[in-house]
Design a protein that fits this description.
Layout lengths: L2 E17 L2 E7 L2 E4 L2 E5 L6 H8 L7 E6 L2 E2 L4 H6 L1 E5 L10 H11 L5 H9 L15 H13 L5 E5 L7 H18 L2 E6 L2 H4 L5 E6 L2 E7 H10 L2 E6 L2 H10 L4 E3 L4 E4 L5 H11 L4 E7 L3 H9 L5
Parallel strand pairs: 4-9, 4-10, 7-8, 8-9
Antiparallel strand pairs: 1-2, 1-3, 1-5, 5-6, 10-11, 12-14, 12-15, 13-14
The structure holds adenosine-5'-triphosphate.
Family: Belongs to the ABC transporter superfamily.
InterPro entries: AAA+_ATPase, ABC_transporter-like_ATP-bd, ABC_transporter-like_CS, P-loop_NTPase
Keywords: ATP-binding, Nucleotide-binding, Transport
Length: about 300
């Protein structure tokens, strides 16, 4: 269940530089509702990994605030980190040990009961493969084992940096289903980063788009879909486009003239038929009337390029 008012993660004015004169994270305000699957998207070098490292307190602290489950990271570090599981790119695994023994090492280190090992193996679907050596695992199995390690402490928040990097389409689907299950059936809030919207589009409830260290868009996926829809136009070509333009303006349509045709802002399903009727009733011949939609990926790319508004 997504709780829009309760935040699992919040950053306020988060900034960070590796060197004095070049900030890589700039005044970032991130808001991840409890129960959300938050897709943290941006091109290579945008600052996703750096933000994630800051959330996990793996870098010297920058300026601004980080709160997790309402507690400030600086004040409540160990409590917060004990409720957070993370997987940053490829997991560090002992290849010469079995999947089970890899989990046992971490369970011992963190004083986690052995029963939990079987539970997480089941969750990630490795229970029948746990006695095999990790060097014989596929990349997808290694990634799932990495997730199992992150899940050992029964985290409320899971932070995953590009977890499907390098996986084949099947592996990507497996991880996606696993994350969906963790979110829906185990109540885990998930932050998952990716540079491809298409990879997470069918998984996430919320999106944060980062470009050059700045948050360019943040909100429910539905809001991004709405922006995409709002960019749809109807292209119309008639035997007299100058006259058609006049008629459409008189009818209070949002219309502009392109090289060979007119573009009318698309608002609803009936619009196309209404425009054809309007123009033919005025004696014009409509040669072409076509709805042109902007894909979600195109909207994402225009947001990154900062020319969406
Ligand atoms: N250890 C470091 N020292 C100096 N600069 C760094 C360091 N790590 C990252 N950067 C720089 O910080 C910026 C953000 O990098 P970051 O790895 O956070 O981006 P990203 O969005 O995760 O990209 P990718 O998808 O390629 O991993 C980049 O310009 C990168 O070159």
């Amino acid at each position: 269940m997504i709780d829009e008012n309760g935040l699992a993660v919040e950053t306020i004015g988060l900034s960070f530089s590796f060197s004095k004169d070049r900030p890589v994270i700039k005044e970032l305000n991130m808001q991840i509702p409890k129960g959300a699957i938050y897709g943290f998207l941006g091109p290579n070098g945008a600052g996703k990994t750096t933000t994630i490292r800051l959330l996990l307190d793996l870098l010297p602290s920058g300026s601004g605030e980080i709160s997790v489950f309402g507690k400030t990271l600086g004040d409540d570090r160990s409590n917060i980190l004990s409720r957070t599981g993370a997987l940053i790119e490829s997991p560090s695994l002992y290849e010469h040990l079995t999947g089970y023994d890899n989990l046992k090492v971490t369970a011992n280190l963190r004083s986690i009961k052995k029963d939990r090992i079987q539970e997480v193996l089941k969750i990630v679907g490795l229970d029948t493969e746990s006695k095999k050596y990790v060097h014989s695992y596929s990349l997808g199995m290694k990634q799932r084992l990495g997730l199992a390690i992150a899940l050992l402490s029964s985290p409320d928040l899971l932070i995953l940096d590009e977890p499907t990097n390098g996986l084949d389409p099947n592996g990507i689907i497996e991880i996606r289903e696993l994350l969906r299950d963790l979110n829906a059936n185990h109540g885990v809030t998930i932050l998952v980063s990716s540079h491809l919207l298409s990879e997470v589009e069918r998984l996430v409830s919320h999106v944060g788009i980062i470009g050059r260290g700045e948050m360019m868009f943040q909100g429910p996926l539905k809001k991004l879909q709405q922006i995409s829809q709002d960019k749809a136009v109807i292209e119309i070509d008639t035997d007299d486009n100058a006259r058609a333009l006049e008629i459409l303006l008189e009818d209070h349509q949002q219309v502009s003239k392109a090289a060979q045709f007119l573009e009318v802002h698309y608002t609803d399903r009936d619009r196309l038929a209404q425009l054809i009727i309007l123009l033919t009733a005025a004696g014009l011949r409509v040669n072409r009337a076509q709805l042109v939609e902007s894909s979600l990926e195109e909207t994402f790319l225009s947001i990154i390029k900062d020319d969406h508004l």
